[in-house]
Amino acid sequence: MGPMPRKPSKDADRLRRAWSGLAIEVFRLNGDLIEGGDALVRDLGLTSARWQVLGAIALSPVPLPVAHIARNMGLARQSVQRVVDDMRDDGLVRTEPNPHHRRAPLVAMTPQGEAAYEQATARKDLWADVLTEGLSAETIEAAGTLLRTLQQRIAASHGHIASIAATRKETQE
């Protein structure tokens, strides 16, 4: 039998509640961002997923294979592959031979994809102006810093999640 679980302090309990509340708000924000993004770019032949993949391509100085796009954006490779295939069929991206890997072609925007991405970015800027009215840049930057820190901690914890779950199970027995 393992050690008896300690009763969390009021501070620890408050942090746990704050973390849970923040996670719920991030899930809600993600859903609203996707819904709003879809509405913002629908007439450009884009969805939020397509826009996100075009953004990853635009941010890279060189064409990337699907796996690198997925890794850079924190997405599943298979999901990005489906989006790239659809966008290729619609003329928004093209694939090029990859000199480093025969079966992993490089993805690049077409002129049509570049135009759609530029229009989407211009619309995003106008949307940002409305959404950030009355907020300070410092507040938004601090929120971004907090989210990046939490994302890094979550990514670093992936190797320990099974042991955390096992420890929790032991304390319940």
Key descriptive features of the protein:
3-stranded antiparallel β-sheet; Arc Repressor Mutant, subunit A; 69% helix; 173 residues; globular; mainly alpha; 3 strands
- Helix proportion: 55-70%
Estimate the global geometry from the Cα principal axes: globular
In total, how many domains does the architecture comprise?
1
Widest β-sheet, arrangement of strands:
1-3-2
Structural class: mainly alpha
Architecture, according to CATH? Orthogonal Bundle
**Cα gyration radius (Å):** 21 Å
Fraction in beta strands = 5-15%
Oligomer: single chain
**How many DSSP E strands?**
3
Query: What is the residue-averaged pLDDT?
Result: 91
Q: Quick one: CATH superfamily? A: Winged helix-like DNA-binding domain superfamily/Winged helix DNA-binding domain
Order of helices and strands: HHEHHEEHHH
Low-confidence stretches: none
CATH class: Mainly Alpha
